[in-house]
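FAQ
Q: What does a multi-component entry look like?
A: The components come first, one per line:
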Amino acid sequence: MNPPIAAAEVARAVLPNGLTCLAKASPGAGMVALCAYVRAGAMYDGDQPGLARFVGASLVRGTHRHRGPDLAEALDAMGASLSASAGIETVSLAAHSLSDDLPRLLGFAAEVLVDPAFPPDEVERVRGELLTAIRVNGLDTRQVAERLFRRLAYPADHPHSRSPDGDEATVAGLDRAALQAFHRMHYVPGAAILAVVGDVEPGAALDQVAAAFAGWHGDAPLPLPAGRAAPPAAVVRGETPVPGKSQSDLVLGVPGASRRDPDYYALMMANLLLGQLGLMGRIGQRVREKLGVAYYAYSDLRAGLLAGPWWVRAGVNPVNVDRAVAAILAEIETLQSSGPAPDELEDARTFLTGSLAVRLESTPGLAQMLADIELYGLGLDYLERYAAIIGAVSRDAIVRAAHRFPTTAYVLAVAGPDRSAA
Amino acid sequence: MLDHYATTLPNGLQVLIQESHTTPVATFWLWYRVGSRNETPGTTGVSHWVEHLLFKGTQSYPSGTMMRLIDRLGGRWNAFTWKDYTAYFEVLPADRIETAVRLEADRMQHAIFDADVVASERTVIISEREGAENFPSYILREEVDALAFKAHPYRQPVIGWKEDLRAITRDDLYRHYRTYYHPGNAIAVAVGAFDTTAMAALIETAFGEIPPGPPPPPVRAVEPEQSGERRVVLRRPGGATAYLHMAYHVPAASHPDLAPLLVLDGVLSGFKGIAAFDGGGGGRSSRLYRALVDGGLATEASSALTPSADPTVFRIMATVRSGVEVAAVEAAVHGEVARLQEEPVPSSELDKVKRQALAQFVYLRDGVSRRAVALGSFAAVDRPQTLAALADAVGRVTADDVARVAGTYLLETRRTVGSYLPDGAPRRARVEQAA
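Then the predicted structure of the entire assembly, as tokens:
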């Protein structure tokens, strides 16, 4: 089957201001979808945790041309959707509309990325929403366990050491000038990518992007933060009791790899076998199917511009935490010592290559894939080469990759009912 | 826009097919008209548990082989259980869809209910429930439903009460499966890049020989008319802020007021996707967002109407902004409801909501899965024709219709108001490092 994205059908241009834009037609969809990334995530928060998220959340709340409510009114009247949110590495903007409305949608996307006004009343409203979210997340056991994991697994100056939410004291104190300064410094066209997919001719889409973003100027983008994380030297266990809960959520892992890591594909396949393929891979098979102690137990390799975590996550009754941890470690050890079975490896390969069309079923999904291809420098022919890339990953490489998740030196973070009393 | 081929096999299986070649993918769904609506006290959660067991293998596809098959074909599959239905689906490269049809026909009849597997799944499902219990908004919803309905099984949570999950037996599960899993109680939906005639033949070959089975027991419970407002206040640890959840009794999907109620929902919080649980809408210009979020009272505000087989509830929900009294949020909601009843929605606002609805019908065509959900869920709770007619019905809704349904249904005597108030604070982490 043809790959869902082939180089020949993608139009790509770098505008004079440095913005990289991509477009692909998806005929008959009746709609268009945008996906934009700006390297302006919480990795640039510095000593103001929560700053990037605050800026990201304020973008749609008013520009120099439209008050926030007017922007909302215009988008709603088009039946369109436009949202932006800052993660650790990037701010992502996702939008879609009926195809005829593409020029207007691009106009609004350009306004919110290039020209947000940070109106004082909206900034206060956003602050209240962010503070509420920080408090809610502070009692959400999955979030609490993740935060604790990040703090224990990464050095304090590593972007992955904390959640983009930031902390209450900082978010309470950030002023509008700080938001504007962050925006000026990091929202620059050279740090941005915009992909358009939909019922539109790709060349025409790029012309419309160029028209909408022509006025965007800024300094050269900043380099990525250094972000070096050493693997843990020992087993580190942390636990945060959260009152009023039934279940313990656990995160067990190590600092992982970036997309540019030479072993990325071997790691990705080791992770797939460990905690994803089928119903959550070998870990799901053991912890959910055999032991029956968890509804969810899976692994995830968060490889991005930087080395995000490689972790296993599970939710279990507090009395079953130790059993689940032992089972997870045993599965990692088995993969390290025995490697994948030949048919298991074949399953993983056919799944990865065969499922592209299914995974990229929707227009917004295609737009995001196109933006990812650019963000990680994979090449427009990436999906055409994908089967060969996957086919070249050997069994030995997967075994070597599995050893990057040592079972004698990892971080375990648990949040849930207080187990110390038991 | 949602033209489809419809037929019913002699054994009662309803078949809905929509051919679409925008992406080389196809999806096959099997919807059973069974969910928590069909359950009785003592065995709540049995439908959802049966759903889990249908992934544990049959004689032809022993445990694990189904999963491998779908993975190898590059597909994905899953299932979910709701109050009115249980739905199973596969999404596959279009030339592989036959596998899904055969697999669903096989597990309609031949699922193995092994006692050990039932026992192991019990703790998995209790874990699923306990994970949900960690969220105060989930517990609040459960309390509101239990209070809003006193006779109808919509009062029961889909996942089931925990004590029932501890007590349900293998025989309860098997009996439930045998009672409801028949062609006459099911709807097959296929959407994707195939030939309609070939797909119809494929479905007929796979399902045609299966006996129709006895008609499932009817749900006789009728919720008596509510005679006064009901309230529940949850004060317990586990949450950091307050939540408000209001529920008003409204009619079933088959009632002609469905379209005006969906438009009313759109005025309050944006017109949502038509496929069940599709969300969307956004609606930052909507009335609830303006009054509650722009008003500084809440950080999230939404309303929702899930088209249902029996009379159901229209929900209004808010996450209260930290430091704000939940009573202030509730008062603002009452203000918005009164405004709907007293002032006709201006034509510009009505046009905006209709434009959102139009766009949602276009977005529904993207990919294959959402169309299958929309077709299947409407067929399960009413008729697929309701969906096909919905775009026109929404287009005909007038400002007077919206005011009328607001005045008919969003009444004090039809509502249940639930609030969650936080109690207690988080504690600090304990950390230890092994040598």
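Q: Is there any commentary attached?
A: Sometimes. For this entry: Chain B touches chain A through 87 residues (CB under 8 Å).
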